[in-house]
Amino acid sequence: MTRTAASTAKDFPLHSLPTRLLVGLTLLALAVVMGAQAAIASDDHAGQSIFTRNGIAIGGTDPVAYFTEGKPVQGSPEFSAEYMGATWHFANAEHRDRFTADPEAYAPQYGGFCAFGVAAAERKIETVPEAWSIVDGKLYLNYTLPTQERWNEDIPGYIATADQVWPTIK
Fold it and tell me: Are the C-beta atoms of 113 and 127 separated by less than 8 Å?
């Protein structure tokens, strides 16, 4: 019998597949899911809660530059430091030294994950360097510029919610 895209499940019942093939497909699906979870966990540095790409915090953006330059600036591996299990890049040695002297003053809130996502969805969502704000001397990053617009609608309320739920998010 020839199978086509129009074949239905009743034309090709699952129980007719050899058991070894079914087991193999099930194991493959499980491996894909476990691999995805492992990749997410590795970028979270085993619970340290820092947003990274390939082990680099906040995608390599210099967190100090938001405060000194008033904009996101790409950091360099030449000027790097380790903090909370992640590597942080800086635009220059001065920024690196400022960060290492007081990382909590410059590191983004919620580990650099989307502040709106923490408050509204209670989960860790990646961020982009262009969606940012400094509120009461603290850096907050967001997923996209439209997400940043939503964040701007009630910053104090979202911060209060995010501060409450952040410790419970895994």
Answer: yes
